[in-house]
Amino acid sequence: MLVEINLLPKRERKSRFMPLLSIVIAVLFIVGATTFYFIVQRMEQQIAQLKTELDQTKALRIAEEEKQKTATNASVGVQLQEAIQWAEQYPIHTIALLHELIERLPERGFLMNVSYARDGAIQLTAQFDTTRESAAYLQALKDASFITDVKLTSLTAVEEKAEEEGTMPRYIGQFSIQLNMEEWKKQQQGGGT
């Protein structure tokens, strides 16, 4: 009997699994890279589109602001022109008017706020030490020939601290006055009070 001795290493059968796995991985990598590339391209297009829209929106906003500025400037110009015309038509000397209102205040009365409207309406706030002083001021305003109507709309007591006397009440009176424009003009032209 013959015995065969083979000293050559036995050839192993090549596995098809490894090359197949390599091909699958390569195909998946190529598909993934291609998909990623197209997604990035699409995002870049969207970003470019959004930037264009943003630039257009900014341009529209700037144009709208310029339009509003022009309209506002024209409106301010018209209002200023109207105010100048009104001032020329109704020359009320407010300094003289304030002097007349202050002159009628009692000794310890103080004007705090005065507002004047075009139609001769005056809102006046004054401070007094007593309610009697506020009543005296109301009567002094009623007696003025250049005032057609005057009302004491409110009188409020306010506590103030005095250094020597402790807490003393002060009275804040709000007056609504209607100026007689014609009489005031005559008085100013004539120089009388």
TrEMBL record:
Keywords associated with the record: Coiled coil, Membrane, Transmembrane, Transmembrane helix
PANTHER family recorded: DNA UTILIZATION PROTEIN HOFN
Domain of life: Bacteria
Membrane spanning stretches: 20-40
Pfam families listed in its UniProt record: PilN (PF05137)
InterPro entries tied to this protein: Extracell_DNA_Util/SecSys_Comp (IPR052534), PilN (IPR007813)
Name recorded for this polypeptide: Tfp pilus assembly protein PilN
Coiled coil: 40-67
